[in-house]
Amino acid sequence: MTKKSKRTKWIVFAGIMLIIQLIAEIVLICMTLKTKMLPQKYIIVVTIGLVFVEFIVFSLIYVGQNRKKIKGTAFFRRIIGTVLSTVMIFCCLLGTYALNRGMGTLNRVTDSKKVEEDKVAVYVMDNDSAQTIDDAKKYKFAYTKSYGYEDTKKAIEDINEKIDDEIDKKSYASAVEMVEALYSGETKAMILNCSYESVITDVEGYEDFSSRTRIIYEYTRTYEVDNNSESEQKDNDIDVTEDAFIVYISGSDTRSKKLTKSRSDVNILAIVNPKNHQILLLNTPRDYYVEPSIAPGEKDKLTHCGLYGIDCSMDTLKNLYGLNEINYYGQINFTGFETLVDEIGGITINSDSSFQSTLYPQYKFVKGENDVKGEKALAFARERYALGDGDNARGRHQMEIIKAVIEKMTNSTALLTNYSGIMDSLEGMISTDFASDDISALINKQLSDGGTWDIKTFATEGEGASKKTYSMPTQRAYVCVPDESSVQQANQLIKKVMNGEMISDDDLKITQKGD
């Protein structure tokens, strides 16, 4: 084969690579436009950059190949051009894949149809000899029709099928009565939806239920819910880049890799004004003694509202603060929270005191700035026993965490550079009724406008008391009776942010308790 024919074949091959490169670049630009996240000026810069590289590759492969003076270097130029083209093809395909995967996950996260799960368990005393449900087939089982009976009934049917017999069971009016029967030996096992275990441990005298008992069987029901069933009734016809809006941030106290119906240990309203770049984070104590939206005239802990669904928590807070609407929600469980902080590379938080975590003894915090990753951030957010004002301090810590996450994601390239990883890792652990277009529009605006957000925090307060609750009507539990002046102050702060007024630190202190 002559040198000329070899050169001709090489140039043809390089030309094919150049065409593939052009197609890969066009696909990447189209995918970037589809995400709606990058501002137009960025897309123009990227496009110009890709066109410039295309021109460089073309020049290296074709320009001057037949001129005698540069024939000696032509081979090396073709090599460099082909390698550069290959690298560009790989980078464009990788970028397209990452964007496509990230968008797919975002669409699933924001899909109105969510997959949730409920778990029903069989509990025995910790010192019981039974290790499996088959070991307990001759036991008497306590159950109740008061909480999630449909799932309990399915669990009983599953147990009967597994042991090829029918269990001996006895119905009780409440979960606490079942626990009493288990403790006294009246029954040797009890069947209960796992989400209500936390309600039992909230009741005075039953705080050690989890350590005194253990689970020998679990029945899990996975089902699909359509979040638009309620949200369709909301007036969410707003432009999130221009109009002020309110987001309910809920923290589920589960570690499952799927969201489950459970208490909400974090109850924060984020009032966002995109025009003046101000956010008010309003914390409501988890034990606030409020009127659940599903039971007018009754009172329960705010955290228990999560057991009846996200809408119950949102509507209860809406009624508490006299709001017309809470526009969106975002719910994340403990596993998702750890993952989020890790994926954005950790955060820097400010602690108002030094302490050692009681839940995670391996972690210590100093007064002032602390650099934390996922689990340590979670330890900070969950701590209350090592702090003088317990739940109030925990609320402040949770708002500090959210503030730090917002600052990290808006003041750095964390979201842009690891968007796919962040979204992919959170699938199944975060639920929201934000539309994917709204999230894209907010990211676009932040990248376009830049700048920091002025984040203010406020926490309503109250007095501790022992009261009966809607979830446990026969027993007393610790609650926090709302301080009405702080509730009214919160209402005024919300109105200011929604109306576009900038709130100052002095506004936060006007009616704070103790001033």
TrEMBL record:
Residues spanning the membrane: 12-35, 41-63, 75-99
Cell envelope-related transcriptional attenuator domain sequence ranges: 263-410
Taxonomic superkingdom: Bacteria
Keyword line: Membrane, Transmembrane, Transmembrane helix
InterPro entries: LytR/CpsA/Psr_CW_biosynth, LytR_CpsA_psr
The family this protein is said to belong to: Belongs to the LytR/CpsA/Psr (LCP) family.
NCBIfam families, A to Z: lytR_cpsA_psr
Listed name of the protein: LytR family transcriptional regulator
UniProt source species: Agathobacter rectalis
